[in-house]
Design brief:
Blueprint (H helix, E strand, L loop, with lengths): L1 H17 L1 H14 L9 H12 L13 H6 L1 E2 L2 E2 L1 H18 L20 H14 L8 H24 L6 E3 L4 E3 L23 E2 H12 L18 H12 L4 H7 L8 H8 L2 H14 L17 E10 L10 E2 L1 H4 L3 E10 L4 E8 L8 H7 L7 E3 L7 H9 L3 E2 L12 E2 L3 H6 L8 E2 L2 H6 L1 H12 L5 H10 L5 H23 L1 H24 L12 H31 L4 H13 L8 E2 L28
Parallel strand pairs: 5-14, 6-10, 10-11, 12-13
Antiparallel strand pairs: 1-2, 3-4, 6-8, 7-8, 8-9
Helix pairs in contact: 1-5, 2-5, 3-5, 7-20, 8-22, 9-10, 9-11, 9-22, 12-22, 15-20, 22-23
Length: about 625
């Protein structure tokens, strides 16, 4: 009854009401300034917002958007609780925005989902042309597309189960509750660091020299054009390199300005403002990554020269406590009581770091997998691996539709459901060890097939990023039809992968090996980003990505320098045996080596003989009275 509801919730709503005045001061102006998209938004919340914008008397304010218990608690012995009403309105506005039932007219993150996609009229009139342009025409007929996938899934069930039944798969053991699966470790080469003997470890190469050498070969500094496209002004190479080092090594540009020679005084801040954008730093990295395509030595590290296995993983970084950033969040496991961010990085078999982005620490990494795979047109990923954080059934579906093989390492993967297109009982009757848990809803996929194709073309045309579309889809309180259809298709691809994963020990080993590479690159990242306790010190997402891309630019430059140096060693080898030895060492080791690089500058002892220093005079300070 009403009295019990009031008593139970009184303290909760009293607390909300006590915070209302503070919330009003922070949010009233914002709510009144925002233009909401009334056509695509929930009518009850729009009605309340418009009333809030236009009226000062809230006795008759709209209440349809409130829960029943909230409506009851709004009235007490003193009358209508206006402050509580406003606080509840702010709360519901926030929830409706997150759930996609309240959309903003002018927002990148919170528009109506329909407005992120290719215009419906354009899609309906030019569908075939768009699919052809983006190499997706083979998907146009659902029946033709799904038929071979269905046959392959059925064959995977047969092949995997037969190898279990015939004891061919000796790593698989059935248990009372599920099964166990062993993966023999790949042979670990004791001489893993033997590549050092071919690198100039007796000398330390200045990081400035590394960057300058790579720039002479590629001219990646050409990517740093002026923010004003009409400007013909160019920054000096010295200033650009100093700014890259400042950002990438996490040294403040003010400090770089003071400790660097050959730089105009107080000039780096100007260079940062006019020449450093997220796009510029991405382009500079792409120049280095793409240049490596031309080197034969790069292909030596691939298991198959015609296939490129890539991987991605997140790495946590603290945020400087005094810096407030909307992109930073709490995670006690990684940061204790402080805030931090996650840097999600992509690497291929040849150790090229081809994409990286800074994301909120509480965001699911899987939402960014497609962004990285589609970023660089010249670097093709044939098979991509992540750990569990990068996996979801939606990503299985999207990667397959976009032409990538997805092969994650899934924690407790034996607990994952297997699915089938055929009825479950057919597999049970065959007495398989591995049988599907549920049947796929093909009707759901087929009914939304046109929307799925429109979604894919939107991503490939780069009208909207995959991560933004997935964020919007997953924000809805009830799963969107399109999301559930992609997820349902992804269950098919995930099941086929799991069956092959169980059956193919070499696949499991290759996944493990590739994920080790991205973990190795994370150590490399920390070595480069050494300044200021390796904490991010910039607040905006754009500047965080600029700093991260500069760090990656330094890493890619070192990787390429190592490749060029070793190519030279192979070319100068006295005979074929010596060449083969160097090649074998490269294949058994990692090109990610930085022990021969000097990141920290030089210490000048030549001025120590001067009688006085610039700051402290030579006198007996013990005799001075204060």
């Amino acid at each position: 009854n009403e009295s019990s509801i009031i008593n139970e919730n009184k303290s909760k709503f009293d607390l909300i009401e006590s915070k209302s005045r503070s919330l009003q001061g922070q949010l009233s102006g914002i709510i009144k300034a925002i233009e909401f998209d009334e056509k695509t938004s929930d009518k009850s919340i729009i009605k309340a917002i418009n009333y809030f914008k236009q009226s000062n008397n809230f006795q008759n304010a709209p209440q349809d958007f409130l829960e029943d218990e909230e409506k009851i608690i709004l009235i007490n012995e003193e009358g209508f609780r206006t402050s509580l009403y406003k606080a509840l309105l702010f709360y519901h506005v926030s929830n409706h925005i997150k759930n996609g039932t309240l959309n903003l007219k002018y927002s990148y993150r919170y528009k109506s989902f329909e407005k992120y996609l290719i215009d419906k009229e354009t899609w309906d009139s030019k569908k075939n042309e768009l699919l052809k342009e983006h190499n997706l025409l083979d998907l146009i007929s659902f029946d033709s597309f799904i038929s071979p996938i269905s046959k392959k899934l059925d064959n995977s069930y047969y092949q995997t189960n037969m190898n279990i039944i015939k004891d061919i798969n000796t790593n698989f053991k059935k248990t009372s509750s599920a099964f166990t699966l062993k993966t023999p470790s790949l042979e670990k080469f004791e001489e893993d660091d033997s590549i050092n003997k071919y690198l100039p470890t007796n000398n330390f190469i200045s990081i400035i020299e590394i960057l300058n050498t790579i720039n002479k070969h590629i001219n990646f500094l050409n990517a740093f054009s002026h923010y004003n496209i009409k400007s013909t002004t160019k920054a000096s190479e010295h200033s650009l390199l100093a700014s890259i080092l400042g950002y990438g090594c996490n040294i403040s540009l003010l400090q770089m300005d003071k400790i660097s020679k050959g730089i105009q005084p107080n000039h780096l801040d100007t260079v940062k403002t006019w020449y450093f954008t997220e796009d510029n730093t991405l382009e500079a990295n792409d120049k280095i990554v793409n240049f490596m395509n031309n080197l034969e030595i790069v292909k030596l590290l691939r298991a198959n020269k015609n296939l490129n296995h890539t991987s991605s993983d997140g790495q946590k970084y603290n945020m400087k406590p005094s810096v407030e950033s909307t992109n930073a969040g709490y995670s006690f496991k990684y940061f204790g009581t402080q805030k931090g961010v996650s840097v999600y990085t992509f690497i291929d078999e040849s150790h090229r770091l081809f994409y990286s982005t800074v994301i909120h620490v509480n965001e699911r990494e899987s939402g960014y997998v497609i962004d990285g795979l589609l970023h660089n047109d010249e670097l093709q990923s044939d098979i991509h691996s992540t750990d569990t954080h990068g996996f979801s059934e939606v990503i299985f579906g999207l990667t397959h539709l976009l032409g990538f093989s997805f092969a994650p390492r899934i924690k407790n993967f034996k607990d994952q459901y297997l699915y089938s297109i055929k009825p479950r009982k057919e597999y049970i009757e065959k007495k398989y060890s591995l049988v599907p848990r549920q049947k796929i809803n093909l009707e759901n996929i087929e009914n939304n097939w046109d929307s799925i194709l429109r979604f894919l073309v939107t991503i490939k045309s780069k009208k909207t990023s995959s991560s933004q579309l997935l964020k919007r889809l997953t924000s809805y309180s009830k799963e969107h039809q399109l999301y559930t259809a992609i997820k349902e298709f992804g269950k098919i691809i995930k099941t086929d992968f799991l069956l092959n994963y169980i059956d193919d020990v070499e696949l499991r080993q290759r996944i493990e090996k590739q994920l080790n590479k991205v973990e190795s690159s994370n150590k490399f990242s920390k070595a480069v980003f050494f300044g200021r306790n390796a904490e991010f010190t910039v607040a905006t997402i754009e500047e965080q990505n600029i700093a991260n891309n500069c760090k990656r630019l330094i890493q890619n430059s070192i990787i390429l320098w190592n490749y060029l140096y070793l190519t030279q060693k192979i070319d100068e080898a006295k005979n074929q045996d010596e060449k083969n030895e160097i090649i074998k060492t490269i294949q058994q080791s990692s090109i990610i080596h930085w022990s021969h690089i000097n990141f920290y500058g030089e210490y000048d002892f030549t001025k120590l003989d001067r009688k006085d220093t610039k700051y402290i005079k030579d006198k007996d300070y013990s005799q001075l009275k204060i």
